[in-house]
C-alpha cells in the first residue's frame, strides 16, 4: 500500500529545518488536499486528484479548471498516479487496478483499461497518447502501443516497481523498483541499455525530455544524474540528511537545473553538473493540517527564473529562483 508510506514520510519530515521563503503566487486547487498531481513539462497544465473533486485538469496559465474526470461513477476517487504527455495532447490517470487516457483538446476519454493481475504503481504517456507505460506491483512493466495493440511486458525487474518515466516518443523507458535497480531500456526490443544500481530501493526516476539525462534516487541518501548517451554518472546530489526521499523531479529545458520535491514540504533546485543544491523552499500546508506538512506531488519550470509546484495541500505555488545566466 502506498498510503502508509505516504504518512510515514510526512512524519519523517518533521526534523528538517528550512528557511521560510514566501511563494510569489498561490492558487487553491483543492480545499481539503490532494492525493496526487502531475504538471506538464511546459507548466501549462496540471492534473490533480482528490476525494473532493475527483480528477481535476487545470490550465495553469489562466488558473482555470478545464475538466473534471472520474474512473467510475458513484464511487470514491482513488486515482494516485497521473502523467501528461510532453506535447500536452493526452493525460493518463491510474488507480490501483485501472488506468484511463484522456484527450486534452476536448477532455474526452480515449480508453479505459483494467489490470487482471498486480496493481498499478506508476504510469507515463508518450506524445499523441501513442504509447502507455504501466509500472506494476509484481515487478512487471507494460509498454502498450495503442495503434497496433502491441503489449510488451518488460521483465527486467524482480520486485515491485516504484517509479517509471518514458521518452516523449515512447521509444525509451526508465524504471526503478524494490530490487535496488533502475533500468533504462528500449521499448521496441525490451533490451536493457543501462542498469543503474543503488544500495536500497529505487523510489524515483526521471528522464530529461531532450534525451540528455536520467535521474535515479533510492530510499536512503543516494540521488544521481546520469548521461544517457554514455551511461556515465554526471553528478550525485549533495545533501547531509541521512534520508532524502524525492516525490517530484523535473529537468530544466536548458539542462542546467534539476528541480525536486519531497514528502517533507521541501522544494529545491540543483546544479545538474555539480549536484550542488542552489536554493530551497517549503511548500505551504493546508489550514489546521496535523502534522503541519505536505507532500510535493509535482514541480515544473514556469520560466527561466520561476518554478511552479503542486502539493498535497491542494495549492499550486509559484517560486522565484536565481538563474545565474540571467
Provide an overview of this structure.
The structure is a single chain. The chain is mainly β. The chain has a single domain, classed as YVTN repeat-like/Quinoprotein amine dehydrogenase (Methylamine Dehydrogenase, Chain H, 7 Propeller), CATH 2.130.10.10. The protein is built from 1 helix and 28 strands. The strands form 7 sheets. It has a 4-stranded antiparallel beta sheet, with no helix packed on it. β4 and β5 form a beta hairpin. The N terminus is likely disordered. Keywords: Repeat, WD repeat. It holds the Pfam family WD40.
Shape, per Cα inertia axes: globular
List low-confidence stretches. 1-18
Structural class: mainly beta
Number of domains: 1
Our Rg estimate from Cα atoms comes to 18 Å
Order of the strands making up the biggest sheet: 1-28-27-26
For CATH, the homologous superfamily is named as YVTN repeat-like/Quinoprotein amine dehydrogenase
Mean pLDDT: 92
CATH topology descriptor: Methylamine Dehydrogenase, Chain H
- Number of DSSP strands? 28
Tags for this entry?
326 residues, mainly beta, Methylamine Dehydrogenase, Chain H, 4-stranded antiparallel sheet, disordered N terminus, Quinoprotein_ADH-like_sf, WD40_rpt, WD repeat, repeat, WDR55/POC1
Compact summary:
The protein is mainly β and 326 residues long. It is built from 1 helix and 28 strands.
Amino acid at each position: 500500500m502506498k498510503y502508509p508510506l505516504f504518512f510515514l514520510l510526512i512524519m519523517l519530515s518533521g526534523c528538517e529545518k528550512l528557511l521560510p521563503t514566501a511563494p510569489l503566487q498561490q492558487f487553491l486547487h483543492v480545499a481539503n488536499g490532494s492525493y496526487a498531481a502531475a504538471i506538464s513539462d511546459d507548466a501549462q497544465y496540471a492534473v490533480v486528484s482528490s476525494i473532493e473533486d475527483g480528477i481535476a485538469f487545470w490550465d495553469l496559465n489562466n488558473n482555470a479548471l478545464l475538466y473534471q474526470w472520474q474512473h467510475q461513477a458513484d464511487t470514491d476517487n482513488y486515482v494516485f498516479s497521473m502523467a501528461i504527455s510532453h506535447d500536452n495532447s493526452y493525460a493518463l490517470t491510474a488507480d490501483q487496478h485501472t488506468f484511463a487516457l484522456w484527450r486534452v483538446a476536448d477532455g474526452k476519454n480515449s480508453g479505459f483499461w483494467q489490470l487482471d493481475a498486480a496493481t498499478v504503481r506508476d504510469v507515463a504517456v508518450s506524445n499523441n497518447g501513442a504509447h502507455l507505460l504501466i509500472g506494476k506491483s509484481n515487478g512487471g512493466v507494460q509498454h502498450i502501443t495503442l495503434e497496433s495493440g502491441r503489449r510488451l511486458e518488460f521483465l527486467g525487474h524482480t520486485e515491485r516497481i516504484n517509479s517509471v518515466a518514458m521518452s516523449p516518443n515512447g521509444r525509451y523507458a526508465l524504471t526503478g523498483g524494490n530490487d535496488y535497480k533502475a533500468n533504462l531500456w528500449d521499448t521496441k526490443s525490451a533490451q536493457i541499455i543501462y542498469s543503474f544500481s543503488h544500495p536500497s530501493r529505487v523510489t524515483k526516476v526521471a528522464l530529461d525530455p531532450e534525451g540528455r539525462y536520467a535521474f535515479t534516487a533510492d530510499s536512503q541518501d543516494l540521488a544521481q544524474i546520469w548521461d544517457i548517451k554514455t551511461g556515465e554518472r554526471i553528478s550525485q546530489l549533495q545533501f547531509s540528511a541521512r534520508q532524502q526521499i524525492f516525490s517530484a523531479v523535473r529537468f530544466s529545458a536548458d539542462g542546467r537545473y534539476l528541480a525536486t520535491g519531497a514528502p517533507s514540504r521541501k522544494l529545491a533546485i540543483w546544479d545538474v553538473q555539480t549536484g550542488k543544491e542552489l536554493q530551497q523552499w517549503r511548500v505551504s500546508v493546508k489550514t489546521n493540517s496535523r502534522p503541519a506538512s505536505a507532500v510535493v506531488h509535482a514541480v515544473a519550470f514556469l520560466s527561466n527564473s520561476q518554478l511552479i509546484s503542486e502539493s498535497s495541500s491542494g495549492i499550486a505555488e509559484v517560486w522565484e529562483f536565481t538563474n545565474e545566466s540571467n
